[in-house]
Design a protein that fits this description.
It comes from Streptomyces ramulosus. This is DUF397 domain-containing protein. Pfam families: DUF397. This protein has about 70 residues and is an alpha+beta fold. It is built from two helices and four strands; from the N terminus they run ββαββα. The protein has a domain of about 45 residues.
C-alpha cells in the first residue's frame, strides 16, 4: 500500500464497487485506468472524493478481492 503523493491521480476514472451499498454508505471506488501507468490501483472512499486515496500494487489488490469474494465478511 502506498500514500505516495507522487502518484498523480488527476486522470483517474473512478468506478464505484458493485458491492457498495446503494444508500451511499460503505462505498469504495477504484481507478483501474491508472494501473498501467502507475503500477498501482488507487482506492478511495466515495463519500470523500477530495480525501486521501490509497494505492495498492495491482497484484495485492487482486488477491484481496479474491479473498473477499470467498469470505462471509
Amino acid at each position: 500500500m502506498s500514500t505516495n503523493p507522487q502518484h498523480n491521480l488527476a486522470g483517474a476514472a473512478w468506478q464505484k464497487s458493485s458491492y457498495s451499498e446503494k444508500d451511499g454508505g460503505l462505498c469504495v471506488e477504484v481507478a483501474r485506468n491508472l494501473v498501467p501507468a502507475l503500477g498501482v490501483l488507487p482506492v478511495r472512499d466515495s463519500k470523500d472524493p477530495n480525501g486521501p486515496a490509497l494505492a495498492f500494487p495491482a497484484a495485492s489488490w487482486a488477491s484481496f478481492v479474491e479473498f473477499a469474494k470467498g469470505s462471509d465478511v
